[in-house]
Automatic annotation (TrEMBL):
Assigned GO CC terms: extracellular region; lysosome
Gene3D superfamilies: 3.50.30.30, Zn peptidases
Protein name: Carboxypeptidase Q
Keyword terms, alphabetized: Carboxypeptidase, Endoplasmic reticulum, Glycoprotein, Golgi apparatus, Hydrolase, Lysosome, Metal-binding, Metalloprotease, Protease, Secreted, Signal, Zinc, Zymogen
Record has Glycoprotein as a keyword: yes
Record localization: Endoplasmic reticulum; Golgi apparatus; Lysosome; Secreted
Keyword Lyase: no
UniProt-listed GO biological process terms: proteolysis
Length: 478
């Protein structure tokens, strides 16, 4: 009986807390009717998918400093102006790296029939140095981790180092795609620099992705500007081939990579404000990054994130809804190879940083959303019950709190105390196409994108109208 009484008391307290939260919501525009109306309206529109089609099919790749990136700035800004948003372009100086020729073939290996060589499919990493136009020829040393590289340091000088590290797709299939990517991407970001320090003439990394479609996955690498060796990603199949041949004996490659680092280029963050009413000086950001790598058309990384953020403004415009706080759509520039758009925004905002109530970014692909990730204090978690209840009918009612999300362009704002939010999406196959030539519009399911817009819009509205302060992120709010 005592257990039953305790249980009844707990239920009573939960119901009381829920009723209290719902009462607060009803006074701020965050009542169930408003949230359901917004969610339903977002699900009824293909505006975001249409904008994504414009971006990917009409413009294509959008690497920072490229004509495609410049065209995307103009396209997104004009679309937001047509909705009546208050648009501004924030200047950003961005890196301008361009890839050139990229070819490789295995020209010597044990058992090679006379006169034969084998082509290797690869792509230069962003920031890679260049070979001579005629290429270079060197023996390959295969390593599987940084410890093995150091253990074989005496063998590295004058050779091409291959980091053959498989992507852990089993982790990705079980909802841990982010950690799986982090494990693999460290070799792409740090491996070439470590190899260069030991005297390597070039560095190769096994593509960081889960599907073996003989696709090369590019991405940024960090090299010492005084020792910028050629660096490339090879396909998983070619990395495995090289490893098998190396087990038979010495393997030599002829490699040609001719990328160039040009002078920094002028570009912009696109900022579109949907002004608030009585708290218009307070800001809720909803965002994605506008730049993409240059192999595909950047549909899942991160055209879908930008289009989804644009869909937030379109939904509120269609419903003629004005939030209490200003909802600010940002299409960030240069997330992929520098993060300078985010740095420029942070530099320009310090006097008003405390007016940023929350920031949302979608940069984990266009998979089906199941809920929301948030870097809010534990004591604030209960405030989100009305929001998650409104998202439950579309299967997006999961709320996961963390002390920090460290989400791309928002990480600096988060460190300054601004709570970060991002959609919790299905990413099991995201790294099949990430940073490859296969990142194209057909990989985006329009229904999943509508669900993301519904989640983003409902969340942005909820944050823009909440009465109770949610607290600051990280140590400022724990």
């Amino acid at each position: 009986m005592r257990f039953k009484l305790q249980a009844l008391c707990s239920i009573s307290l939960l119901l009381s807390a829920s009723l209290s939260v719902n009462a607060l919501a009803a006074t701020s525009g965050n009542d169930a009717a408003h949230l359901q109306k917004i969610r339903t309206a977002a699900m009824d529109s293909d505006y975001a998918y249409q904008r994504l089609a414009d971006m990917t099919d009409l413009i294509g790749p959008r690497l920072s400093g490229s004509p495609g990136a410049a065209a995307a700035v103009t396209q997104v800004a004009e679309a937001m102006r047509q909705l009546g948003a208050r648009v501004s372009l924030e200047p950003v100086k961005v890196p301008h790296w361009v890839r050139g020729a990229e070819t490789a073939e295995l020209i010597e290996y044990a058992g090679r029939p006379a006169g034969l060589s084998q082509r290797v499919i690869l792509t230069a990493l962003g920031g890679s140095g260049a070979t001579a136009d005629t290429g270079l020829t060197a023996e390959i040393i295969v390593v599987h981790n940084f410890e093995e590289l150091q253990a074989r340091a005496a063998e590295v000088k004058g050779r091409i180092v291959l980091f053959d590290v498989p992507f852990n797709q089993a982790m990705a299939d079980r909802g841990l795609a982010g950690p799986a990517y982090g494990e693999g991407a460290q070799y792409r970001s740090k491996g070439p620099k470590a190899a260069a320090k030991l005297g390597a003439v070039a560095a190769l990394v096994r593509a960081v992705g889960g599907a073996n479609f003989r696709l090369a996955h590019t991405g940024a690498t960090s090299l010492d500007p005084t020792n910028r060796i050629p660096a490339a990603a090879v396909t998983a199949e070619d990395a495995m081939l090289i490893s098998r041949l190396a087990a038979r004996g010495a393997v030599s490659m002829h490699l040609t990579l001719t990328p160039q680092i040009l002078a920094d280029a002028d570009s912009f963050n696109v900022i579109a404000d949907w002004p608030g009413s009585d708290k218009a000086d307070e800001i809720v950001i909803v965002s994605g990054h506008l730049d993409s790598w240059d192999l595909g058309t950047g549909a899942i990384d991160d055209g879908a994130g930008v289009a989804g953020a644009m869909g937030v403004i379109e939904t509120l415009k269609r419903l003629a809804l004005k939030p209490r706080r200003t909802i600010r759509m940002i299409a960030w520039m240069n997330e992929e190879n520098g993060g300078r758009g985010a740095l420029a925004y942070q530099k320009n905002q310090p006097p008003k940083l405390d007016k940023h109530i929350a920031a949302i970014e979608s940069d984990s692909g266009a998979g089906r959303p199941f809920g929301l990730l948030a870097s809010v204090p534990a004591k604030s978690e209960a405030l989100f019950a009305p929001l998650m209840a409104a998202l439950q009918p579309i299967g997006a009612g999961v709320f996961k709190r963390a002390d920090a999300l460290d989400t791309g362009d928002l990480s600096g704002l988060e460190e300054a105390g601004v709570p970060s939010f991002e959609p919790l999406v299905d990413t099991h196959d995201y790294f099949h196409y990430h940073h490859t030539s296969a990142d194209t519009l057909d990989k985006v399911d329009p229904e999943n994108l509508r669900r993301q817009v519904a989640l983003l819009t409902t969340t942005a509205w909820f944050l823009a109208n909440i009465d109770t302060p949610i607290g600051r992120a990280l140590s400022l709010g724990k």
